[in-house]
Structure formats: structure tokens, C-alpha cells
Amino acid sequence: MDTRRLLSSAALYGFADMAVIAVGGFLLLPMYTRSLTQAEFGHFVAVRANIDIFTYLLQFGIPSALGRLYFDHRKVGTEREFISALVCFFGLLLLGTCGALALAGRALWSGLSPAVPITPYLPLSVAIAALGFLSALSVIWLRMQGRVVAVVSLQVGGAALIAIVATLMLRFFHWGLTGILLALLAGSMLSAGALPVMLGKSFRLALPRAWLAETLRYAVPILVGYVAYFLLNRASTLILQHHVPAEELAVFGLAQQLSMVAGIACSSFGMALQPAVYGAEADQVPSMIHRATRILALLMLAVCAALMIFAQEIFALVAPRGYAGGLTLLLILVVANFSNTFTLMSDTVLLYHRRPKTSVAVSILSAILAMLLGLVLIPEHHILGAAVATCAAFGSRMLVSQWMARRLTGQSDFALMATSLTALGAIGGGAHWLSAQGWPLAMLLAAKFAFSAALAGTLFVIHRRLSASHA
């Protein structure tokens, strides 16, 4: 494994994905939180959760199945026909979903978000999810081809489009939440529009039964896993809507959205590492996983440390004082997202060994735990209980997934996991101590930058030593 090439690809993919989350969920947050009332932002949190539900249902695990099956079809020259078949299946799925929502959409929406009107938010949510499928297929196909520049261009271009449309809608037309959703819709159009261009004349209106069965073999467990992951990550949001006002939901939603920077970084870095694993011979996989996990852990420690050290400044930058109560929530949720580092790599092992059902079972158990903890903690502890329930469920998922991967390979990263989490806890404690000193702003920022520089130097030295030991 070429570590330098892996790091450069991971950094570029990470930059592209981080651009999307930064624009859609971070850089525009100051405008969102100041253009919307706190209650309206709470409605935005609820609608985003519903968009996630429709996205998982419409994608049906197909983009992830493409990532696993693409190389098999490329070997025999049928990758374009295979992708055409996936698009045809999606068309049928979309028609069925729209029909079901026409009959029961009002009842479903009211059960999910009783305080949010169904019109225009249900139609916009479905449209965003539908374009998201085509966008995901385009990006994954390009990643499988190793076309890093094209991936970055599409994702950064989509992020820029979101920023432009959101600014127009909020600052000039004052369309509020509807304007934000229209901006998200516009942001998906660029990547979604790339798919028909990439297929061109090779598109065929056909759905071979053997390919469908092969795809569903992977897609259905992945879909179940995605729904389980949604409940793991968003069950607290759904439960909170029935116990707290929209203003309090807004605080939790903001902290969760900021913490997702770590989650998105982990996924994007991991997706850069996965193709090398999937394309490797069986005897090479254990060493590749072992090395990739260490690379990913170092990258994620850097991202999560930055979020923790500057958490106070981030909150002050992106939101009014009414959201300040989310600072502690952010620290807890960053730890939850950091655990994805080890879960992602152990899941890669399970998928490589064709054990998707095992991966799904782990996610289901963790989702059930998240719901149970949420039902116990949220009624009494509200948003703090929601954060603790989410973190505990993510941690349990990490431990069980690692244990299952160890049973297959005889190799585990429990020592690295314990060391990394201890280091992250120490960083969070140090950041909290610095923020509690009451120093002048200039002195506080100087101390935090010095802390960050020392940490970056330490991580770099560790990386060099790991690279030298594998040379």
C-alpha cells in the first residue's frame, strides 16, 4: 500500500466531502440561525431528519452495493449496463414511494414531526432524496474509477450552488426554511446531472433478473443497516420532538450537525481507503486493514481534536447566545462520531469477507440500544440525555463490530482504540480547562493554537514512525 498516495487521495476526497458538509451544514449555519427563529431552526432539524429517512428508503442501499460490485462488473466489461440497471430499479422504486405517500403521507409526516406542516416540506423532502440517489451514484462511480478531480469538482460545485441559492433565498427573498430546502435541492442537481452524461448512449432500459438479485443480495442488508444507523444517530431527534419545544430541539440539532463534521470526515477518508482493500488479495487484507486503521485513526484524532479545542469559538461563530447550551453536547457527540473510525474499518472487514448480515446485525442491536436509552434518558434529562444515549450506543456498536471482525481475522485494534479514546478524552478535558480559565480572548486563542500545534506535531511524529516501521 502506497501510504503517500492513500493519504493524498483521502485528503482530496475528504476535502470534497468536507466542502459539502461545511457549506450545507457549517459555513451557512450563521445565516441559518440568524435568518430563522430558534423554533424555525428546530423545524429545520426535524425536516432534515425526515429527508434522511426518505434518502435511505429511496437509495435502498444501491449506491453501497455499487461500491462493492463495481469491480466484479468491470472485470467483464458490463459496468455501464449494470449502472443503467440500477437507475431503472430506482425509477420503479421512486414511483412506488410516491404512490404510497399519496395514500399515507399525511399520517406518516404527522407521526414523525407533528409540529411541522406537511406542505411544502414533504414534497421537497422527497425531491431532495430522489436527486440525492442520482448524485450518490455519480460520485461513487467516479470514485471507483479513481477520478479524484472529477469527484472534487462535482462536490465542491454542488456546495457552491447551495451557498449561492441559500443566500438568495434567505437574504433577498426571505423564504425561510423553504428557501433552505430549495438550496439543498439545487445543490444535488449538479452531481445528479452528471450521471446521464457519464452513461451517455450506453444507457439501456433493462433490468436483468440476475443482476437485480445480485444487487439486492447486498443492497437489502445495507438498507437495513442504513435504517439502523439512522435510528442510532437520529432516534434521539425523533424522540425529542415529543418531549421538548422546538427551541430546545434546535440546540441539540445544532450540536449534532457540528459534530457530523467528524462523521463526514471519517466516511470520506474511509471511502478513499476501502477500494484498495476490496481490490486486494485475501492474504494482503489483514495487513492493509491494520495499516489503514492507524492512518484513519490519526486523521480522525486531528479532526476531532480541532472540533473540541475550538468548540466554544465555533458555537459563538455559528449561532446566537441562545444556542450556547449545546457546547457540552458537542463534546459528547464528537466522541460518538470518533468511534466511527474503528467501526468503519471493522465493517470493511465484514463486507470483504461477504458478511453484510453480520454488519447489519451489529447496527440493529446498536439502534435498539439507542432507542431504549433515548426513551429512558430523554424524558428526564432532555437534550443532555439525548447526547449521552447517542454516544453510548455508538460506543457499543464500535466494540461489537470490532469483536466480530476479530473473529474473522484473529486481529483486533482494541489497544489502538483504547489509546485513541483516552487521548481524545484528554484533549477534550484540556480544551474544557482552557475555556474555563476566563482568560482574555487573545490569550485564550494563543493558548489553543499552541495546544493545537503541539498536538499536530505529536500526530505527525507518530505517523512518521508508523510509516518507517512498515517501510
From TrEMBL:
Residue ranges of the TM segments: 12-33, 53-71, 83-109, 121-142, 149-173, 179-199, 211-232, 252-274, 295-317, 323-346, 358-377, 383-400, 412-435, 441-462
UniProt main location, coarse: membrane
InterPro entries associated with the record: Poly_Biosynth_Transport (IPR050833), Polysacc_synth (IPR002797)
Protein's membrane topology: Multi-pass membrane protein
Entry's localization field: Cell membrane
Pfam families (UniProt xref): Polysacc_synt (PF01943)
Record keywords, A-Z: Cell membrane, Membrane, Transmembrane, Transmembrane helix
Descriptive protein name: Oligosaccharide flippase family protein
Species whose genome carries this gene: Roseateles amylovorans
Lineage, top ranks: Bacteria, Pseudomonadati, Pseudomonadota, Betaproteobacteria, Burkholderiales
